[in-house]
Amino acid sequence: MSDTQLRWRDARATAERLLADWHLPGEPGGAITLFDTQRTQAVVCAGQADLARGEPFTADSVVRYASLTKHIFAALALNATEGTLRLDQPLGELLPQLRGEPAAVSVGQALDMTGGLPDVRETLGLLGISGYSVSHAEPVMTFIQGLSRLNFPAGSEISYSNTGYRLVEAALQQRGYRFAQLVQQHIAQPLQLGWQAPDSWFDIVPGLSPGYWRAPQGWQQSSAGLHLSASGSLTGSIDDLTRWLQALLGDRGAAAGVLQQLSAPRYLTNGQLSAYGWGWRAPRSARISYWATAALTPVIKPIFCWRRSGRLVWRWSPTAKTATAPASPCR
């Protein structure tokens, strides 16, 4: 029995331990997939995808990818728009309606979280507008165009904001590149994935698991009113996401070169390494090259990590819960 086989076996055992408490009746669930470039080595599932119907969570359960959407959007924006964007291009050149400091933020800064652009949901919340209030694309863009100041000088620090992705998406859409169409043409259809990119939380997505949050009276179904954008609109199954990641790791087909591009280092204006890039956070560890997490949606927490040496990959995508994950599956 090879050392590699032992590692996969140990990783599966770790995954099973992590989800051991998720088998209780009436509990939302999730899954861990273990895979390399060629095949899925193991899938461990627990809990339910739909509490109302009592449907179990499986590798085919459709979920919201939340901020993992950012990686897909960045890949498409940089590679599938015929050179429409330059990373050093000011947003004001692409969107003349922007004014003041936001207009000078570059495309690269908008995508790597160093732009200082106020997050729409946080800003509306400070104005007393609930995150459950329904909004649409045009009023949201009008609101952003009314902002004239940044939270900090562009490039000086990192602060998580979805606004940069919304603005770059709007710039591409004005030039005929719609995110949902790019997804289908360049990724979903070639890889035969069931990905969809709805505009609203309330759009019908076949088979979509609702997602839940825990209230004092029990689990509640999630919702959000803010118009979705390419910062977090994508939906699909765990199996779909695994196959896309396998294409990235295998450096093949339309995904050739994309992983290296997305994980390229990004720097602040003072020369400091940002350790974030296009949504890929790079912890200081000799064992793990990069890992990513969707952290802003409290009911959906997809995570994946890998090390390039040996191509051992672990990805975890629960719908509603959090577990503390040891490093052993990625050793």
UniProtKB/TrEMBL annotation:
<feature type="domain" description="Beta-lactamase-related">
    <location>
        <begin position="27"/>
        <end position="281"/>
    </location>
</feature>
<dbReference type="InterPro" id="IPR050789">
    <property type="entry name" value="Diverse_Enzym_Activities"/>
</dbReference>
<keyword id="KW-0645">Protease</keyword>
<dbReference type="InterPro" id="IPR012338">
    <property type="entry name" value="Beta-lactam/transpept-like"/>
</dbReference>
<dbReference type="InterPro" id="IPR001466">
    <property type="entry name" value="Beta-lactam-related"/>
</dbReference>
<dbReference type="Pfam" id="PF00144">
    <property type="entry name" value="Beta-lactamase"/>
</dbReference>
<keyword id="KW-0378">Hydrolase</keyword>
<dbReference type="GO" id="GO:0004177">
    <property type="term" value="F:aminopeptidase activity"/>
</dbReference>
<keyword id="KW-0031">Aminopeptidase</keyword>
<protein>
    <submittedName>
        <fullName>D-aminopeptidase</fullName>
        <ecNumber>3.4.11.19</ecNumber>
    </submittedName>
</protein>
